[in-house]
Design brief:
Distance between the termini: 36 Å
Number of strands: 2
Number of domains: 1
Helix content: 55-70%
Number of helices: 5
Radius of gyration: 19 Å
Strand order of the largest sheet: 1-2
Largest sheet: 2 strands, antiparallel
Shape: globular
Order of helices and strands: HHEEHHH
Keywords: Membrane, Transmembrane, Transmembrane helix
Length: about 140
């Protein structure tokens, strides 16, 4: 994997963490009623509003965002980038697993969007687990 893919994956994960985290923590009622935004609303179907749970989710997303921004600033630190990827991957696989078992409460469009967006987050995290590609040393001619 090259650095551009790392930057893109980390950047998109950081934006996801900041978007969700700031909204959920600073305005939990609005987040619960309107997430993910753009006229969609995916949380009320999952159960009654709980401010504590909403703020905890926001805090967790903000913590993920901080880790991701640190990794983004040190994109050549493979161990840090892979650790960040592993943390996001664990969260996203478990998150995805829950949601695919509860798609029946959504209409077809929202079912598809849930699967696509949550699977995309898994892919972004998984990409971070690969080491960067380094240029191979030039082959020496051994025909003397």
């Amino acid at each position: 994997m090259n650095s551009k893919i790392r930057y893109a994956s980390l950047g998109l994960l950081a934006v996801t963490g900041l978007y969700t985290g700031i909204w959920a923590y600073c305005s939990p009622t609005s987040w619960y009623a309107n997430f993910p935004g753009l006229g969609l609303s995916w949380l009320p179907q999952l159960g009654p509003y709980n401010e504590h749970l909403a703020k905890d989710a926001g805090a967790m997303f903000l913590a993920l965002a901080v880790l991701t921004v640190i990794a983004l600033r040190s994109v050549h630190n493979t161990r840090l980038v892979q650790t960040t990827g592993a943390v996001w991957l664990l969260f996203n696989v478990l998150h995805f697993s829950y949601h695919v078992q509860h798609l029946d409460m959504y209409n077809t469009r929202d079912q598809i969007l849930n699967v696509v967006f949550l699977a995309a987050l898994i892919l972004l995290a998984a990409l971070l687990l690969f080491p960067t590609l380094t240029a191979l040393p030039a082959r020496q001619d051994r025909t003397r």
